[in-house]
Amino acid sequence: MMQPFRTAEGGRIDRSHRVRFSFDGQAYSGYAGDTLASALLANDVCLIGRSFKYHRPRGIMSAGSEEPNALVTIDRGAGRIAPNLRATSVELYDGLKACSQNRFPSLRFDIGALAGLAAPLLPPGFIYKSFMWPPSFWKRLYEPAIRRTAGLGRTPAEADPDRYLNQYAHCDILIIGGGAAGLAAALGASATGARVILCDEQAELGGGLLDEPNVTIDGWPAPDWVREAIGTLNGSVTLLPRTTAFGWYPNTMIGLTERLTDHLGEPGSQRPRERLWQVRAERVVLATGAIERPLVFPGNDRPGIMLAGAARTYLHRYGVKVGKRVVVATAGDSAYRAATDLHMAGVAIAGIVDRRPAGDSEAIQSARALGIPIHNGMTISSTEGRNRVHSAKLSNGTDIIPCDTILMSGGWTPSVHLFSQSRGALVFDAASGTYLPSQDAVGACAGVFDLSTSLRDGTAAFGGEPRSFAVLGVPAMAPSEPPVATVPHRGAFVDFQNDVTTKDLAIAADEGFVSIEHVKRYTTAGMATDQGKTSNLNALTAIAGLTGQGIEHTGLTTFRPPYTPVTFGALAGPVRGDLFAPIRLPPIATPGAVQEDAGTWKRARCFPNAKETIAAAVARECLAVRNDAGMLDASTLGKIAVEGPDAAAFLSRIYTDDFTKLEPGQCRYAVMLGEDGFIRDDGIVARLAPDRFHVTTTTGGAAYVLHHMEDYRQTEFFAMRVWLTSVTEQWAVIAIQGPRAAEVLALFIPDIDLGTMPHMAVRAGHIGDVPIQLFRVSFTGETGFEINLPPDHAQRVWDTLRQRDVTPFGTDAMHVLCAEKGHIVIGQETDGTVTPDDVGLGWTIRGTDCIGKRSLSLPDLKRHDRKQLVGLLPADPAVVLEEGAQVTVAPSARDGLSGPSVGARNAQSVGHVTSSHCSPTLNRGFALALLAAGRSRIGTQLSVAGPDGGIPVTVTAPVFLEKTADRPKPSPRRTQEPLLPLADQPAPVVRPCDSVQLATLAPITRLSIRAGPAAGTAIGLALGVLLPTVPCRSVMTPNRAALWLGPDEWLIVAPESASELAALARKAVGDHPASIIDVSHRSQTLEIAGPCAAWCLNAFCALDLDLTAFPVGMCTRTLLGAAEIVLWRIVAEVFHVDVARSLMPYVRACLEEARLEFVDVEVVSSRPK
Amino acid sequence: MLLIPCPWCGPRPENEFRYGGQANLTRPAASADDAARGAYLYLRDNPRGRHQERWRHRHGCGRFFNCVRDTVTDRIASTSKIGSL
Ligand SMILES: [Zn+2]
């Protein structure tokens, strides 16, 4: 296969490695090392796509990521279709399939190009102007039509089969750009011993040096100097080619995407496609170079019209001649190098059209010496050619030069996108007429275009001694003249990607748009994925000319991230599927149960038998509780240990009740208010000892309640001596309810007399051999107990009770049973605007100054017509009302209670249904509702909105079951039954890997110590391990450790039994206030070890884990993905990850995912090292 | 992601923290009138620029602390332990 525009030799392509590819179904071949653009040019493919708005034919304008025209779709099979890729950035691989975009039916004959004829009808702001009226047309006509024609490319419909990774990284210096200045900066930085990362968006580091085989640096041809520099940097600097720095975020967090497989013919199923780097850098050095500006002349967008520098890149890096007969149009000297280099390669240069008067720099003299005709003081006034340019007409009006290529050079714009994103100050440089970063930039990005100066500045970027390099072979060039604010030719393209012409800018100026930010939005210049890379300064120059306000007074628009488009896959990273969010499972496995989400947990809704419907299962479960015995896994309820001498006083502020008179061993239902007097949560407060309370919260409210309590403990009632410790996962809870509950429990509980244990009491004892805290509480109105026990034993107790025909019930039945008794459910009957009195809980307010009590006397909270909780009974008992449905009064039934009348003929809402169920006990539907002045409506008839009109209901008190008769009390059992044995846990399968190992450690005793300094010292001495006072540090002895977790919080890890250790600590503190709580079962420990352990953790954990930042012995709570963990460095390459047991599967899966790339390396042993 | 200097633990990524609202609110006594109560509940500063606010190092040391943050630039001028200046 021919590659007619390929040079005979030269370039950095591998000519021994031919690569086949297709474009729009046509087969071509290129070489390894080509981009799609260079390979297409080599094959004389000049027409690549159609423009966005006018469907004009477009070719390749650049050789880099600034390309606005040559956007293609790459098809790698199902789910792997990537639209809008720049052909100039797509690396060629064998079998690559590319398609053009935005054309129908074909690229050469495109119907949409008719839009070009209709261009006068598509002025800036045409959407606002054309589609204003009537509004109904928007939905039916305008919007679908606009949506059909808008946008480029198509997105795949299938799920993305690729994997994506994330990496948090920290460094002292991040160098963005691996050209001359960037490499020199890396050389300078690496000498300082700093942590340095250098990234570059291209496949090969070197930037513009790769285009300069005839330039030598210290005697090396420039590309070879690059190779030597990389060799020096390897090992001391993290070098990231194919990695785009796309965004600058607060506190110097830089987003990078590293492309790992897009350049491979066989991406494989396991290798991740991209890695998102979130780099926190002390310093950033921008070595992002500069982008050449197009010249603004009519017809400047035809295929075959290209930037002059790009032509040099294609020649020197890819061995491609961009044309046979070339006109060079320029406003500076650098384009002369393109002319002479192409001439030397055998390309005819038909002329150089230079806007400026004749000059005599070395670059110009070289061109002149070669006999290239130079037209000074002239520009191009128009071009001809349909699918490729074939002539250029000069501004003298007479000369028409036939050609197949026009190279243009309007000067160079420093790439300040990232600096602008950082909100750094851009300074207008009058000499170059461009905006420059005020700091942090080197090389062309800083406006330095001389190679040896760039190299020297780079090495000195960090205050070090500047190092000079001997640079030979770059002809001397006059500095570029600044762009001049002029009224441009009408109809020349400024923003090629968004199809914005000088005419559009003129219309905007005529219509009074002066601010560059307004012009950008009105005309779309500089918007979308291009972010004005080639267009920004030209648009600015034009607007400055049109408004007469000068370039420096016009200003730049703000550049937005991303610099180049970022895939959704990279942004989502591994946070998909099972890792999208942690799924927390309760300690009791309930196979066959229907599950629901409750907060972050999965809970069993009900337990249908074979062929049983959900409704039937719920009914059966409810009746089992009412008539026999049922059990619920209530482990997900939040539990907080509240300890200290002032615990009772503290809780009397937090909850509405007065707990100072609660006796040890007693419990009480408790309601928590916000300062505004509205109910936030409810639960049970149990006093275990004078200074020790156990508080339960709702499942979904657990985290909030602890946060709320901590807020008051730390910032309002800070003088109180009290501590809060979450023990949610320390205890599994089995709630057993029903007339047979006491009888069946008595079979297994030897040391608590269930017959005499009063309602609302708590006792310590055993079930079988397992220590428990037993609560006698009920949310169903039936006799009820809640067994709090170590989670490891929950399954065997559950299974034992199951064998005694205790019926498992789920949350659905729980809700029915609660509602039958009129018990509120937080989040169902409450919504943040409900007071205790509204739901009949005014009696719970017995404290003297609880939080929110004062607000209850605000006028609005005392209004007689507030919504109040009532019951509703549908006239038809078979009807179950819709939760959330409006409750209405008929117009005729207006009673003056319903507030101001609106639309007197219509029924008016007086409230809504909050809970609605079918009661199997009552054998009918019933509901709870919040109704305005609801209590005064009891006995009246109302209507509830239903799908077929109003449903008649009767308002009742919110209690549907009368108090259940006292059940016969069981006599204490003399003979005890054994529990089922403890089942073995299957060990997780671990794939071996030397780089990083993962292991779950055996259970060990953990005590949470909360204490002041005196008690802390006493405990430390008693336990033989001093409690560290330095934040985030641990003290380790051969068999114990104390970890600092907060200024009055430590974790003790030790081999003894928890009770033994706690007794020792309690004895040591004496009269000093302290809280010592066994949290051994709350969490489990994962050990991650090996040279890549820190790297794997950093896939999900944002902390700096370098040994200097996170030394051996450091410990802290932090996040791993969405899970809170305690991270502790035992030795340099071994970390312990302490994680709540319900989050262990998630954390393990996260670390397994991070580990996969290392495991893979060893499994796929054929991969070269 | 902001980097927030916890007065105890040092600079940490934003996702470890939970915002705690405006700082230095004084909880009025129960005897204060309804207007004072209403203002305490519902009226907050909304400055353009420096804002005194509270954060909690929720997934860290658990401490509430005071913070001065510029609402325009998101720059944090200082953080301090509750009760200290
Ligand atoms: Zn902290």
Gyration radius over CA of chain B: 14 Å
Number of strands of chain B: 6
Largest interface (CB < 8 Å): A-B, 35 and 34 residues
Shape category of chain B: globular
Average pLDDT value of chain B? 94
Oligomer: heterodimer
Uncertain stretches of 5 or more adjacent residues of chain B: none
First and last CA, distance of chain B: 27 Å
Class by SSE composition of chain A: alpha+beta
Overall morphology of chain A: elongated
Task: Provide the gyration radius of chain A in Å.
Answer: 38 Å
Strand content of chain A: 25-35%
Q: Largest sheet of chain B, if any?
A: 4 strands, antiparallel
Largest sheet of chain A: 6 strands, mixed
Distinct bound molecules:
zinc ion
Helix and strand pattern of chain B: EEEHEEE
Query: Main sheet of chain B: which strands, in order across?
Result: 3-4-5-6
The span between the termini of chain A is 35 Å
Helix content bin of chain B: 10-25%
Structural features, described:
The complex is a heterodimer of chains A (1169) and B (85). Chain A is of the alpha+beta class. Helix content of chain A is 21%, strand content 28%. In chain A, helix 5 (180-190) packs parallel to helix 6 (222-233), helix 17 crosses helix 22 and helix 23 crosses helix 24. The longest helix of chain A has 20 residues, at 1144-1163. The radius of gyration of chain A is 38 Å and the shape is elongated. The two termini of chain A are 35 Å apart. Chain B has one helix and six strands. In chain B, strand 5 and strand 6 (76-81) form a beta hairpin. Chain B is mainly beta and 85 residues long. The two termini of chain B are 27 Å apart. The mean pLDDT of chain B is 94. In chain B, the strands form two sheets. In chain B, strands 3-4-5-6 form a four-stranded antiparallel β-sheet, with no helix packed on it. Chain B has a two-stranded antiparallel sheet with strand order 1-2. The chains are: A alpha+beta (1169), B mainly beta (85). The interface between A and B is medium-sized, with 35 and 34 residues.
